UniProtKB/TrEMBL annotation:
TPR repeats: 216-249
UniProtKB keywords: TPR repeat
SUPFAM superfamilies reported for this sequence: SET domain (SSF82199), TPR-like (SSF48452)
Entries under InterPro entries matching the protein: Gramillin-biosynth_MTr, SET_dom, SET_dom_sf, TPR-like_helical_dom_sf, TPR_rpt
CDD domains (alphabetical): SET_SMYD
PANTHER family xref list: TPR DOMAIN PROTEIN (AFU_ORTHOLOGUE AFUA_5G12710)
Stored PROSITE patterns: TPR (PS50005)
Any Pfam family the entry gives: TPR_16
The protein, known as: SET domain-containing protein
Recorded coiled-coil stretches: none
Domain SET: 381-534
């Protein structure tokens, strides 16, 4: 059994972490002059046993392993047929073996850290460490043992022997498209079939290694047995061999039926492994011969659905329902497909999304992408309005290609797991998902020009370029404040294709929520660019914003950044220091910007002193062409929520809104008339505005005897995220203790 290494930070005295470090020192020391193959393997086996004994089932897979963020090697863009073999002894440290490949066989059970790590031998008998990254994610059905069994023969394209002074050395591969598994069905099997390997393996060999079937029927039956055991990779190999053994001449009906069965089995196996394009390939072959084949229609329809080709999926299930009406599974799939195709035209109903997240929080929300005809993408580098758009208009719905909430690994807030999932999707489905991902920019012209296929042909060898995909995530990933149906968190990140075409502005005119539904919240003229704030950081200090955007590979030149840039550096630094002082005072009493406790009177008095200094930091800017003083927004909000009386609350609330360029008085008037023009051209929105209005409504601060604050909150939420009254009530008033 392979080790799925779990976090050791909870173990006493850091003993688990030391074991992990010892494991790497041994595992990566295979080529030192003082070690030999047997010693390495013995120590490796003993350390794995110790790590297993320390592991806790409740702890999670380590995502912060140092090798996860080591310098990555770009994917090879060479055809395997154009390369020649090299052995381990001929490799040069940290230099890619261009034009070469190496053949390896795994000797030890794999350890699943961030990547898959084991010990392998080459055909000359040299033992080395092998580390495969991004080949398997923690979310997959395939276990580490199944992903890289003992005795597996692989080819690494243009390998790199990575040397690390602290961690030793290893043959490291970052892109799964550089790994070729040589099974019985492989065109390269003849190259290794008669290889005399030099070392014994430690563990059970894959089931197929000892199988000696001679007919297509026998291999198909073995594939069925492996599939039932959940060994999908081996089942796929068995079915592929069975297909190869079928005679070219199929004049007999029996041979034709067997071929159809094998294609159907391959389709089901590929589906379970996430290769949806391959699933469609095999179901299409069956449907050409048998247009009404129920299994082919059903499996092909499900694969098209996973590839978000909803109309094709609907066509498959319609045909299936015509030939066999009313089947429960078919009707369920038909209902989903009809919903998605409708959403592609009108956009998903926001209230429906809300109910789905509330009633079934553990089930991923399903929605089709939608782009309003009121906007268009310009050269895949921005979005402009094709007509005038009124505030509150839904302009985009976008479902993430991949989303992850395991926590940030990188500076841009995205995670190693998000990158791995995307690489897997691109590698497995290059003509659909891969094409969508590679159309996004890296903000680097050289990287954007990298090939998607080794031979640039649609049916060529696809490239899962880890360096390019990592940069695409860096430039385009959205941070998510919370997962639908889960507790608030700042650890989410996701990649959305259509949403990524929107450019950033710290003063945006459109806004998105966690389901990535974009609403225009200011009037947008025909031809005007539609922008969003990538991370909702407009109220952050200029220095922090600039650093974050540089990490993403761009500089913001919006009105707010121009104003901040025009300020003397000394004044900016002084204001940054005041912002830091304000947060130090009140952060112990708030969580995610929300007050969770009332600070002592002395703290509040000191806080008011900081506010006065922040106010004065803006007073010298008489020629400033904006009323924005966003650094004061959260301090004013905190004073409003802790004021204790109506007059002070309203006073600070008005100041808070004004600091963002919004008039609270105007908003209340809009709630009376239904006018959606709440925000001016240079104004900003913050979700904490919602909290201020909700607090005022709950406290009954409207002295006119009405519910103007509640009406203002409902209008604000309708304009910014499409919420209706039921959603506002549930979010702010059904759980007052929160």
């Amino acid at each position: 059994m392979a080790l799925e290494l779990v976090g050791c930070k909870g173990t006493k005295n850091g003993h688990g972490r030391r074991l992990l470090e010892d494991f790497h020192r041994v595992l990566h020391g295979a080529n030192s002059e003082t070690s030999n193959a047997q010693d390495l393997r013995t120590k490796h086996r003993n350390l794995l046993a110790k790590l297993r004994s320390r592991a806790s089932d409740k702890e999670k897979l380590v995502q912060s392993c140092p090798t996860a963020t080591s310098k990555l090697t770009p994917a090879s863009d060479a055809l395997l047929s154009s390369l020649t073999e090299i052995v381990h002894a001929k490799l040069l440290s940290n230099i890619r073996a261009k034009g070469r490949f190496i053949i390896l066989r795994t000797l030890e059970p794999v350890a699943a850290l961030v990547g898959l790590e084991t010990v392998a031998e080459d055909r000359a008998g040299d033992v080395c460490t092998l580390a495969l990254y991004n080949y398997r994610s923690s979310k997959t059905e395939t276990t580490p043992d199944e992903a890289l069994p003992v005795g597996t023969v692989i080819i690494l394209k243009e390998p790199v022997l990575k040397i690390d002074p602290e961690r030793g050395n290893a043959l490291r591969c970052d892109s799964p498209s550089d790994v070729v598994f040589v099974g019985r069905d492989s065109p390269f099997y003849g190259m290794v079939e008669h290889t005399v390997w030099h070392h014994e393996v430690n563990g059970s060999l894959p089931s197929l290694s000892s199988f000696r079937g001679s007919s297509a029927e026998e291999w198909k039956t073995e594939g069925n047995n492996l599939f039932k055991r959940g060994l999908f990779n081996e089942a796929r190999e068995a079915y592929a061999v069975a297909l190869q053994l079928l005679p070219a001449d199929e004049s007999k009906e029996q041979g034709s039926e067997l071929r159809i069965t094998i294609h159907l089995n391959l389709a089901q196996t590929y589906f379970r492994l996430g290769f949806f394009e391959e699933t469609v390939l095999h179901t299409d072959i069956v449907l050409k011969q048998d247009p009404h084949n129920h299994k082919a229609l059903f499996r092909g329809g499900r694969a098209h659905y996973e590839l978000r080709r909803y109309q094709l999926a609907l066509d498959h299930f319609d045909r299936l329902n015509t030939s066999s009406p009313g089947q429960p599974e078919t009707m369920k799939e038909l209902k989903k497909c009809r919903e998605r195709t409708s959403e592609q035209t009108t956009g998903v109903n926001i209230y429906k999304l809300y109910l789905a997240a509330k009633l079934k929080p553990q089930i991923p929300i399903d929605a089709a992408d939608f782009m309003s005809p009121m906007i268009k993408v310009v050269q895949r580098r921005g979005v402009v309005a094709t007509e005038a758009i009124q505030p509150g208009t839904k302009i985009l719905v976008c479902k993430a290609l991949q989303a992850d909430f395991t926590g940030p690994t990188f500076e841009d807030g995205s995670s190693n797991e998000l990158v791995t999932e995307l690489i897997q999707s691109v590698w497995k489905n290059p003509n659909t998902i891969g094409k969508s991902v590679y159309e996004l920019t890296t903000n680097n012209a050289e990287l954007d020009s990298h090939k998607q296929y080794c031979d640039e042909g649609l049916n060529g060898e696809p490239i899962a370029d880890v360096v390019r995909i990592r940069k695409i995530v860096n430039a385009n990933a959205f941070r998510l404040d919370r997962a639908p149906g889960h507790e608030p968190s700042e650890d989410g990140s996701a990649l959305f294709v259509s949403a990524s075409y929107f450019n950033h502005s710290c003063i945006p005119n459109a806004i998105y929520n966690d389901v990535v539904v974009f609403h225009v919240f200011k009037p947008v003229a025909c031809g005007e660019e539609v922008t969003v704030a990538y991370e909702g950081e407009s109220a952050e200090p200029f220095t922090a914003r600039k650093k974050n955007y540089q990490a993403r590979g761009f500089l913001c030149n919006c009105q707010l950044c121009q104003l901040d840039q025009a300020e003397p550096e000394g004044e900016r630094k002084a204001r940054d220091a005041l912002i830091a002082a304000e947060r130090e005072l009140l952060d112990p009493y708030r969580k995610n910007g929300v007050m969770i406790a009332i600070p002592p009177a002395g703290i509040l008095k000191s806080h008011r002193g900081v506010i006065q200094k922040l106010e004065r930091s803006y007073s010298t800017l008489a020629d400033r062409k904006s009323s924005l003083k966003s650094a004061l927004f959260m301090p004013y909000v905190c004073q409003a929520l802790t004021s204790g009386n109506r007059v002070k609350f309203v006073d600070y609330a008005e100041k808070a809104f004004e600091s963002m360029g919004v008039s609270l008085k105007h908003l209340l008037e809009c709630s009376d008339t239904g006018d959606v023009n709440i925000f001016g051209e240079g104004s900003l929105y913050s979700i904490h505005m919602d909290g201020v209005l909700a607090a005022a409504a709950m406290a009954g601060l409207d002295n006119s005897g009405g519910d103007r604050f509640l009406a203002a909150l409902e209008l604000l939420k309708r304009v910014t995220d499409g919420s209706n009254k039921q959603m506002v009530k549930a979010q702010f008033f059904d759980n007052k203790e929160n």
